[in-house]
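assembly run, all chains below
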Amino acid sequence: MAVVKINVVGETCPVPLVEARKALRKASPGDIIEITGTHPASKKEIPMAVEALGLELVEVKEEGDSWKIKIKR
Amino acid sequence: MDESNNKATIIVHSGDMDKIYSALILGNGALSMGMEASLYFTFWGLQRLQKDGLEKGPLSKMHFLGLGKWMIKRRMKAANVASLERLIQDYKELGGKIIACEMTMEIMGVKKEDMRQELIDEYGAVGTYIKEARESQITLFI
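ok done. output:
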């Protein structure tokens, strides 16, 4: 079980969502994907995608201007 | 959700830069949210699939002989917006499908060798689009 870290700080629509999806496709079941970014809408939309994909949203954390989202594949 | 119609099908009729952005962002968004996606390139949109054609479209409004486009591109760069090339590569990586309209190729005198064949999954006509669209939950004309 691996932890895959994705950094999309400073990236805007649709890059954070797309990079999250790319990482999830490459991951193996059980892996944790940890995405760090600053794009405000993606903080809401990545969890929406996680739900649509039927995966598990582990954590959404805000740290100042940035956010960190953890997803279990 | 019913898997059989979990799909977005978009006709890319316009070759305008801003509308190609809309089409590719929507396609990538659909794929990212777990849907399938098909982009059907026809008429002016098809020109963007020609070699070196992707970034060549004018702005749909306020192009001003290229000055408007230059200004918008500068603003997009400042906002860190991805290039069309990156978006189309992401779209393909996520399994998005690209269909090129054969009739447009004939009308415009475009040959397969003139096209970026590595991006194109299928060369089709209206039947291909309808077949894809009837099994789609989202269909758009851009």
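The CA atoms of residues 17 and 42 of chain A lie 6 Å apart.

The first helix of chain A runs from residue 15 to 26.

not gonna interpret more than that til we talk
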